[in-house]
Design a protein that fits this description.
Layout: E1 7-12, H1 16-27, E2 32-36, H2 42-47, H3 49-70, H4 82-107, E3 110-113, E4 117-120, E5 123-125, E6 131-139, E7 143-145, H5 160-163, E8 172-176, H6 180-191, E9 195-200, H7 211-223, E10 227-230, E11 234-239, E12 244-248, E13 253-256, E14 258-261, E15 265-267, H8 274-277, E16 300-302, H9 313-328, E17 342-344, E18 350-354, H10 357-364, E19 367-374, H11 377-380, E20 388-395, E21 400-407, H12 411-424, H13 428-433, H14 454-459
Parallel strand pairs: 1-2, 1-6, 2-3, 6-16, 8-9, 8-14, 9-10
Antiparallel strand pairs: 4-5, 5-6, 7-15, 11-12, 12-13, 17-18, 18-21, 19-20, 20-21
The structure holds NADPH dihydro-nicotinamide-adenine-dinucleotide phosphate (NDP).
EC number: 1.8.1.7
Domain Pyridine nucleotide-disulphide oxidoreductase dimerisation: 340-448
Enzyme class: oxidoreductase
């Protein structure tokens, strides 16, 4: 290797993917630098998965108090103090971000707190932090919230980024969108006692998920007090003396104290100098990569949300490992995007892995569907109407379980384990040969005997 470069690898972006790639490569004896313009840990740790989960935990208490009362506890007027929570959350996020920075240091990675811009395929400019050169470059700059800029009044809305730092909890909020972030934050705000309305343009929330999951979720979140308005868009937003008025496409107007747009995220590529380095974008604005995360420039790779493949933290980490193995260990690897388990931390939460029923019908031909809806024993005890949904999609030709879908308490925990069975390609008979754990909700996954018939489906 020519000694003319400052680094063997320079990583732009210290989120989950970038940090993993930088550490592995430095631990392998290479000279590695990393630039981060904000805080170590990226979206997941600083303004995504981790703080979101703390907010979910905080908001779940309202339901927990209700359950406690159902079991005979006296829970007198519990109150929630948002500033206390925010302070504790920020301390913990600071601690976790510090661990990321410390681990980079321990691995021998040079860290630059700077915005990095490519000057050419080997040169990275970091303003007052200087200019460095690298033989190989990895771009892992993640994504940013996207809002429809042309919507009149859009300047008054917040995104998930601001939702983590609101000075006060609003009395009411309208959330636009029907994806992961919209549904998760609707649950968070409603649980914290905020009057919450979800407005989604499509026929049902969580597009891309199994239709039974979508219908079940819409019903369950309404039971938790969230007003769901489907099939309509914002036409404009107006700021008045008392709040923000949403003018919706169906003629409805609604005033709330806050409006949050969760209308998707876009790859963070602006101002990176990609054109100077020969890195091309897809038509959707993501960095174009091949199966080994290599960009259109020979010495530059990209992983994580900036490539807009499967925008999940564990996927970015796996892409980082595959990149490291391929590029630095002469062991070409490509991450396998099939049967990746995922969870929506809504209330109740969702856990899914594999194919939806409609995907399976297209991909597998004949399929069998097993579905159960039941009241979990914990909340049925005091007459709560919450229901859990579990669904297995089975390829009839070989009895293989190709999809598992759960809505209900602990669904994310269950789906991690069910994901092993789906990924391993186990058959329904093998699932059924596994003895149940009783009494649990998860036991339903190995005790579903009756296939859905057209009659049982129409009975719902
Ligand atoms: P999603 O892509 O999941 O959802 C965006 C939502 O906004 C969709 O409902 C979409 O509608 C709607 N939308 C898009 N454009 C408009 C518009 N112009 N007007 C009105 N509505 C619009 O994005 P999120 O921001 O929720 O999340 C981004 C990604 O981050 C997720 O896809 C996921 O990969 C990841 N993520 C994962 C989490 C987890 O693992 N728990 C948590 C949070 C995020 P339509 O469906 O009609 O397109």
């Amino acid at each position: 290797m020519p000694e003319t470069y400052d680094y063997d690898l320079f990583v732009i972006g210290a989120g989950s993917g970038g940090v993993r790639a930088a550490r592995l490569t430095a631990l392998g004896g290479k000279r590695v630098g990393i630039a981060e313009e904000y805080r170590y840990g990226g979206t997941c740790v600083v303004r995504g998965c981790v703080p979101k989960k703390f907010m979910v935990y905080a908001s779940e208490f309202s339901h927990i108090f209700e359950t406690a009362r159902g079991y005979g506890w006296t829970v007198d007027n519990p109150t929630f103090d948002w500033p206390t929570f925010l302070e504790a959350k920020d301390v913990e996020i600071g601690r976790l971000s510090g661990i990321y920075a410390a681990n980079l240091g321990k691995a021998g990675v040079d860290t630059f707190h700077a915005r990095a811009v490519l000057k050419d395929a080997h040169t990275i400019d970091m303003g007052d932090k200087g200019t460095v050169t690298a033989e190989k470059i990895l771009i892992a700059t993640g994504g940013r919230p996207w809002v429809p800029e042309d919507l009149p009044g859009i300047e008054h809305v917040i995104t998930s980024e601001e939702a983590f730092h609101l000075p006060q909890l609003p009395k009411s909020i309208m959330i636009a969108g029907g994806g992961y972030i919209a549904v998760e934050f609707a649950g968070i705000f409603a649980g914290l006692g905020v009057e919450t309305t979800l407005v989604y343009r499509g026929p049902n929330i969580l597009r891309g998920f199994d239709d039974d999951v979508r219908a079940h979720m819409a019903g369950e979140i309404e039971k938790r007090g969230i007003k769901v308005v489907l099939g309509c868009q914002h036409e404009s937003i107006e700021k008045t003396e008392t709040g923000l008025v949403s003018h919706l496409g169906n003629g409805m107007t609604l005033e709330t104290e806050q409006i949050m747009f969760a209308t998707g995220r876009v790859p963070h590529v602006k101002g990176l100098g990609l054109d100077k380095a020969g890195v091309e974008l897809t038509e959707h604005g993501a960095i174009k990569v091949d199966g080994h995360s290599k960009t259109t420039a020979d010495n530059i790779w990209a992983i994580g949300d900036v490539t807009d493949r499967m925008n999940l933290t564990p996927v970015a980490i796996r892409e980082a490992v595959a990149f490291h193995e391929t590029v630095f260990r002469n062991n070409p690897q490509a991450f396998d995007y099939e049967a990746v388990p995922t969870a929506v931390f809504s209330q109740p939460p969702v856990g899914v892995v594999g194919l939806t029923e409609s995907e399976a019908r297209k991909a597998c031909g004949e399929i069998d569907v097993y579905l159960t809806r039941f009241r979990p024993m914990k909340t049925a005890f005091y007459g709560d109407d919450e229901r859990t949904l579990m669904k297995l999609v089975v390829r009839a030709a070989d009895d293989r379980v190709v999809g598992c879908h759960i809505v209900g308490p602990d669904a994310p925990e269950m789906i991690q384990l069910a994901g092993i069975a789906v990924k391993a390609g186990l058959t329904k008979a093998q699932w059924d040969a596994t003895c149940a754990v009783h009494p649990s909700a998860a036991e339903e996954l190995v005790t579903m005997r009756d296939k859905q018939t057209p009659q049982s489906m129409s009975a719902g």
